[in-house]
Amino acid sequence: MILTCAIIDDEPLAVDLLASYAKNTPTLELVGTYNNAITAIKKLREEPVDILFLDIQMPEVSGLEFAMILPKTTKVIFTTAFPQYALDSYKVNSIDYLIKPITYDTFLKSVEKALNYFEEIRKNETLIEEQAIYVKSDYKLLRIALDKILFVEGLKDYVAIHVDDKEEPIPSLINMKRIMDYLPSPAFMRVHRSYIVNMKKIESVDRNRIVIGNQFIPISESYKEDVYGYLNKHTVL
């Protein structure tokens, strides 16, 4: 995935440094640099970028004020010499907060955070549109509707996908982490190192075990907090 980006900073040296970082980062496409928010506003509202590297203390319009009028699809990485604005930065469309002087290493970590965010968004958009995943099984590519999946069981070298209209689970040579990347959260949750559950298919929860049909799926200590947090949100008291 390649993300478009722009830079706004009233210090020319800071713009040059960030521009050099962006140009050396294969996952970024730098489309504009600006020395103040006023000159950038029309362009960035007409042609939004994915990421905006934005200074906070600038004349005329501060970075925090400018972030509030950006398109919601643009995520901000603030770049500043003033750490006291960190809390305020997360009240707007920010994804990270970098303190100057900014090293290439910290720049890359922010870009990675942004990539993870956009990959998750686009993955979920695709799943909402498709409402299905495709898996390789026995030399075939099978389409499995998400609402048919009961749970996924991790075995030694593969997973078994239990589907409510099939007597036998569908085997696929994929690991649990990989298939979890393609299942929307929190509709699907990891409840055990060997189990991913479609939370809509739960019939009951009994003594740290999830009941789906005649299957009893354990909830492990590692995932208990997340699982019960979800259940508590959906419990009528």
SSE string: EHEHEHEHEHEEEEEHEEEEEH
- Count, helices: 7
Average pLDDT taken over every residue: 88
| Strand arrangement in the largest pleated sheet | 2-1-3-4-5
Helix content: 25-40%
* Count of strand segments: 15
Describe the overall structure.
- The chain is α/β, with parallel strands linked by helices and 237 residues long.
- The protein is built from 7 helices and 15 strands.
- A 5-stranded parallel sheet has the order 2-1-3-4-5. It has a 5-stranded antiparallel sheet with strand order 10-9-8-12-11. Strands 13-14-15 form a 3-stranded antiparallel sheet, with no helix packed on it.
- The model has no long low-confidence stretch (mean pLDDT 88).
Please render the helix and strand layout as text:
Blueprint: E1 3-8, H1 12-23, E2 28-34, H2 37-46, E3 51-55, H3 63-67, E4 75-80, H4 86-89, E5 94-99, H5 104-130, E6 132-137, E7 140-145, E8 149-154, E9 159-163, E10 170-172, H6 176-180, E11 188-192, E12 195-198, E13 204-205, E14 209-212, E15 215-218, H7 224-233
Parallel strand pairs: 1-2, 1-3, 3-4, 4-5
Antiparallel strand pairs: 6-7, 8-9, 8-12, 9-10, 11-12, 13-14, 14-15
Structure keywords:
alpha/beta; 5-stranded parallel beta sheet; 7 helices; 31% helix
Nutshell version of this structure?
The chain has 237 residues and is an alpha/beta fold.
